[in-house]
Design goal:
α6 packs across α7. The strands form 7 sheets. The chain has an 8-stranded mixed beta sheet with strand order 3-5-1-12-9-10-11-20, with helices on both faces. The N and C termini lie far apart (56 Å). The protein is built from 19 helices and 30 strands. By secondary structure, it is of the alpha+beta class.
């Protein structure tokens, strides 16, 4: 089945928040934010701004009737700053006017005086000064300190991976309307409708049932709208509460870039120990996560870094610790991979460093340590249905790795001004929210009198085609034509208390709920059909809009069955709840079984570096990926392609830059580069790995949103290989992204 939104997307007819018809009395909001990264507000004057004709009101923390607090995991983030600001771009006030242009003019007239305080911008500096979001966390297995004493080789090093801008096509935005009896409807561009509802209720000082949140679809999210869509909706809701008029707020791109958090930069320090047969015997890492000025989702992201610190390798002695470092940057947040990529980059760097110093190929160490059945991760989960070696060998054999390596070596021998590089990147990525209570979902299914079907879930459609997969589940179980099924918007009054659409778990959780609801309805309809056809309920089947008896088409149609069910007063609505079984995790012991299953795969990346200019091209990425039993291979391959491009961008081009005063310098698309058609891989070949899938995945079709992003890490090491082929004096560094400027410096390093 094709993406059900493709037709309206292509024609420009798909609706987003900014496309909604607005009421005639709609007002427009604009946030006034801090022009300094850290300091005490000694004076702020709104009088000139308030005097402009068309400015209705400027809201501050003094106008909040509930709590001035939007922190999710930790209550450490005010909606609007009170006496002190902690990052450049921190919201201070909210201007409401009769037009956007008037609000923008008013913002320029606000006068503020800030007594500046010291600014911290790096995780290293934060650690040195003891500035942390919360206490550090550690995972361990075996005894790494003792194991290092028995290793034949021990290497230590440092890595840095920078942040990454989400750059969703649709910026943050909302439209908030007053309804009767003090209720408020928020249409938001959010991955977490319940988070918006819950936070708005807390700030406004009203019950959650007074807040309705509706999400049509998002023009991209990538994690940037999981928690960080919330403040803008809540600001508008506060204004609506006071003014009893609708308020619209769509951030422009510059405001969005300045005021929102990014992927977390990490400084990390590793120690790796190997035996002579290249087995990794011990591994230690200290991760310094640059969390920004407030917790946001940093503690959860830090946890997932620990979960993925050993990637797809078995290491018997592990000690990993992560510090969430508090700095004066916008609170960094969820981003596709959710801390996993940062962890995987470190283990791959440690292996590359060891291989370089031993004078061997990195893939020798990788292959020698791949996970096997019943190996144990540092957090206690025993892995089963392991596909790491199978994916690796399939990639090697299918794409003729030995021939590729010979071609690279031959090319490098024959060419002096350009060099090629090659690398392998295996992945093992756990699927589930690592916070166990979040692994649940609901679905509400209506079968209408004419046989058409409405499906409501907690899944937010943001370009990943989750609505298409939900439709597939429903229409296959009912055996009806796809056009008979409609996916409703995600709405907190139809499906409440939802987990955000994140963690690659959306299709699994919501799909399982849809499956459960549909099967319950089918059980009722089988009994009705059995009575009509004078047969046993177990013999009834559904296919092609017809009712089957023992697999044979009967005279009874789907529409006729529904009509009879109505006459018999059979319930044609079902609300089903699904909670992932098996999973658990004890944070007091840092042990458990947090993931429903893992996704595996291997990518072989080849690149060509222009050794005169420092530029490079990604020649090919050949991937063997574990889709399980894919329920929609076209959509799934599209997800791999998109994630790969985003991963390559993070590793090679996208460089977040702040100055020492905490001001964002990479604040335009001329100063912040993302992969375009010229920097995308020339060839991407994706081969599904033949497996039985996993029963905890919907229809055994494994999650696909986040895992493929990590294939992009391979580009970093392929470029390093090429640089080393040109400059034998080059000392490996692990400082991502590996931009053309850094490559050029490395090529001529002495």
């Amino acid at each position: 089945m094709k993406n059900i939104d493709s037709y309206t997307h292509l024609r420009g007819e798909s609706l987003f928040v900014d496309d909604l018809m607005t009421r005639q009395d709609t007002l427009y909001g604009l946030c006034y934010d801090s022009p300094k990264a850290h300091g005490k507000i000694s004076r702020i004057d709104y009088s000139k701004a308030e005097a402009i004709d068309g400015v209705v009101k400027i809201f501050t923390y003094k106008d909040i009737l509930g709590e001035n607090q939007i922190g999710g995991i930790l209550p450490d983030e005010p909606l609007w700053a009170e006496d002190e600001v902690h990052f450049w771009g921190q919201p201070i006030a909210f201007i409401v006017a009769t037009s956007e242009s008037i609000a923008k003019k008013a913002r320029t007239l606000i006068e503020i005086k800030i007594e500046e305080l010291p600014v911290i911008t790096t995780a290293k500096e934060a650690k040195d000064k003891g500035s942390f979001i919360n206490a550090p966390r550690s995972f361990s297995l075996g005894n790494s300190s003792e194991a290092f004493n028995t290793c034949d080789y021990v290497f230590e090093g440092e890595t840095f991976s920078n942040g990454q801008e989400h750059l969703y096509l649709e910026t943050q935005g909302c439209y908030v309307e007053p309804k009767e009896n003090g209720t408020i409807k928020i249409t938001s561009s959010t991955q977490g409708p319940t988070q918006v509802q819950k936070t708005a209720a807390k700030v406004l000082g009203i019950p959650m049932h007074k807040i309705e949140v509706d999400v049509i679809r998002l023009g991209g999210g990538f994690g940037g709208k999981e928690d960080q869509a919330t403040p803008w909706a809540v600001m508008a809701a506060v204004a609506v509460q006071h003014l009893n008029k609708p308020v619209k707020y769509i951030l422009n791109r510059h405001d969005d870039l300045r005021m929102t958090g990014k992927r977390h930069p990490y400084n990390s320090f590793f120690k790796i120990g190997l035996t002579k047969d290249l087995k990794i015997k011990a591994f230690e890492v200290e991760f310094l996560q640059n969390s920004g000025a407030a917790a946001d989702l940093s503690p959860a992201i830090a946890e997932r870094t620990l979960f993925h610190a050993t990637n797809s390798y078995y290491i018997p002695n592990v000690q990993t610790t992560v510090y969430s470092c508090k700095t004066n940057l916008p609170p960094n947040t969820a981003f596709r991979g959710f801390g996993g990529p940062q962890g995987m980059f470190v283990i791959e760097s440690a292996i590359a460093d060891a291989a370089d110093k031993l004078g061997i190929d990195k893939c020798q160490i990788q292959e020698a340590n791949l996970l096997k059945e019943n190996d144990e991760f540092s957090y206690g989960q025993i892995v089963t249905e392991v596909q790491a070696i199978k994916a690796w060998n399939t990639a090697k054999n299918t794409f003729n790795l030995s021939d590729l390596q010979k071609e690279v070596d031959q090319y490098n021998t024959n060419n002096s001004h350009t060099k090629k590089g090659i690398s392998l990147m295996p992945i093992a990525f756990g699927i589930s929210f690592t916070n166990t209570p979040m692994n649940h979902a609901r679905a509400l299914i209506h079968i209408y009198q004419d046989g058409s079907v409405g499906v409501s879930t907690g899944a937010v459609e943001m370009g990943q085609s989750v609505n298409t997969k939900m439709l597939q589940v429903a229409q296959e179980i009912f055996g009806i034509s796809p056009h008979k099924v409609k996916l409703e918007s995600t709405n907190t009054t139809r499906v409440a208390n939802t987990s955000p659409s994140a963690a690659s778990a959306t299709a699994d959780l919501n799909g399982k709920a849809v499956e459960k609801a549909c099967n319950n309805l089918i059980n009722r309809l089988q009994k009705v059909a059995a009575n009509i056809l004078s047969t046993n309920a177990n013999s009834i089947g559904f296919d092609n809009d017809c009712i089957l008896v023992n697999g044979e088409k009967s005279t009874l149609t789907w529409e006729a069955l529904i009509a009879q069910a109505m006459l018999e007063r059979v319930a044609l609505t079902e609300n089903a709840h699904y909670a992932t079984p098996v999973i658990h995790f004890d944070k007091s012991k840092e042990k458990g079984h947090p993931f429903a299953y893992h996704v595996y795969g291997t990518a072989i990346t080849t690149v060509t570096v222009d050794c005169i200019r420092g530029t490079y091209e990604i020649d090919a990425v050949n991937i063997v990926h574990d889709f399980g039993k894919s329920m929609n291979i076209g959509i799934d391959i599209g997800q791999v392609e998109g994630a790969l491009a985003q991963g390559i961008g993070w590793m090679t081009l996208e460089e977040i830059s702040y100055n020492t005063q905490g001001k964002l310098l990479s604040n335009t698309l001329s100063t912040y580069k993302v992969p375009d058609v010229f920097s995308a891989a020339k060839n991407v070949n994706i081969l599904p790995l033949e497996t039985e899938g996993n029963p905890l995945a919907i229809k055994k079709s494994k999650a696909v949103g986040e895992p493929p992003l990590m294939y992009g890490i391979g580009a970093y090491f392929a470029i390093q290989y090429a640089v080393k082929a040109f400059n034998k004096n080059y000392q490996l560094k692990f400082d991502a992204p590996f931009t053309p400027e850094k490559v050029l410096m490395s090529l001529y390093e002495k």
